[in-house]
Amino acid sequence: MDSFAAIVLVCLSSVEVPACNQENALDVRSVEVANEMSCLYGWQEVIARTPRAEDVGKDTYVKTLCERIKGRDKAAKPPRRMRPATRGRAYTRRR
What we know:
single chain; mainly beta; 3-stranded antiparallel beta sheet; globular; disordered C terminus; 5 strands
């Protein structure tokens, strides 16, 4: 059964919503979820644990993407975790 990854982006208010992506977001977090509907929920908890939580709604906004993780079963390794970035963004994906 496929699972999903909820990708949570924190973008500056000056960046238009369609232009907000993993490359220009201030912060990128991800969490594995059971289904597509779960991508819509839970991002509040993920963002609340970040230093940027106070800025959401003032200088920044949150955008959530949902990606399918094909062919994963429960015994498989979880997706790679986020690690600190070195180029301006708070977190990036490991490759």
